[in-house]
């Protein structure tokens, strides 16, 4: 029995995802597809004048892990008011950060689910005009 | 209808001794292996391992005989002649090789010039939207390389092929018709013969992907009207890494090889080579000898249990699963009715919009597969390598349960329990 993956905070983020909306004005917009199940997710980021993230949102449906991952990642990007991550910080995010953020064991079969929002973010960074 | 004695059958499969509470509902992905298959392969490795068609010593002859006798068993199993059976590494290799063989032959795709009044006369490939990527993508790539159009027959009533649409799509321009015999998502057993007759009427070749069908329902290449047909060993109790490409004798004989190497030549000079007879011409290099011997043993085992008995057993299970799944609130089943089903059911747990109880919650297929897996219930979640079909079904992914000779009704009960458990976890 290894149900630890569905910890209460994961289920909670899945039930009531944070930041699940479209941003009309954004600086980064990227999409990701989970190749194993076809789930799609879009992520939007708006930067403030100080270059820090003020808004981060996502849209898309998927399994609990991908939804919780997107909900938690967008929270993380925004941080506390006035303490959003910088563009340089976004570029430094690595898969390991996402796993620690989720705080659960991600088996090889669920890597694509866990990293769906992260991939959408990277797609946005790639699309961003320098 | 009678069911198989699963207690006895399970004893033939060592996995159930090793994993005592395994509920294996993923045979459409790969089946389990009976001891007789392992013994046959082990026999080769321990008592007569040597290369085939080369050694002049006793073991070499023994290996060659075992390999050729496997080919003969497979041929008998699908109503073909041994010289019509090419042993490959699996359905994907068969499909890719076949497309290249047809392309290399040059005779099948004369590039059609523009017609008299400038209208396009480009050749066409007709496949179905149910095709597995292993069948579809090689054809797509062929179409791209050779400038052919590719048309997909849509799904019609009861998750079957839309045969009326097929009749309109198959025209004198059609050079190839490709159809999966049993859908790996919907379980549908397609009326391949009907498409084959349409194909032959316009002079097109009929290619059949029988991967989910062979060993599950009786398959006879002649009755199906297949010009080419392929499948994998590992979905019919054989080992992984072995598969079959059947080709009608006269057609195979006219095709060049597409994989080159040793064992397929008649004469080689510094500049070029000529090919030996078919089917050897298509088996370059040392083949998967143990795999072929294992596949031969699997076919013998299936013959002993009886494919018709297996299908009858699986139908009982499919019918029972339909009945049980229908009781889950908010379930959507994507599967052919039991009479046309090979033993595969896809479904999604959408939940009810205003779920009043925990048992009405929706669960994503991946989450369901994981929670089921935690209870040792093996099912599949995903697009099942049939993305165009998923697009027409309007879902990114489904959960899939598939049944085979070693499954019993208790396995389906375990699946239902797992679904309920997942719904409880995902209740709002």
UniProtKB/TrEMBL annotation, chain A:
Gene3D superfamilies per the UniProt record, alphabetical: 3.90.1010.10
CDD domains: IscU_like (cd06664)
Transmembrane segments: none
Alphabetized InterPro entries for the sequence: NIF_FeS_clus_asmbl_NifU_N
Positions of the NIF system FeS cluster assembly NifU N-terminal domain: 6-127
Gene Ontology biological process: iron-sulfur cluster assembly
GO terms, molecular function: iron ion binding; iron-sulfur cluster binding
Name of one Pfam family that matches: NifU_N
Top-level division of the source organism's lineage: Bacteria
SUPFAM superfamilies: SufE/NifU (SSF82649)
Name of this chain's protein: NIF system FeS cluster assembly NifU N-terminal domain-containing protein
Source organism (scientific name): Candidatus Yonathbacteria bacterium RIFCSPHIGHO2_01_FULL_51_10
Organism ancestry: Bacteria, Candidatus Yonathiibacteriota
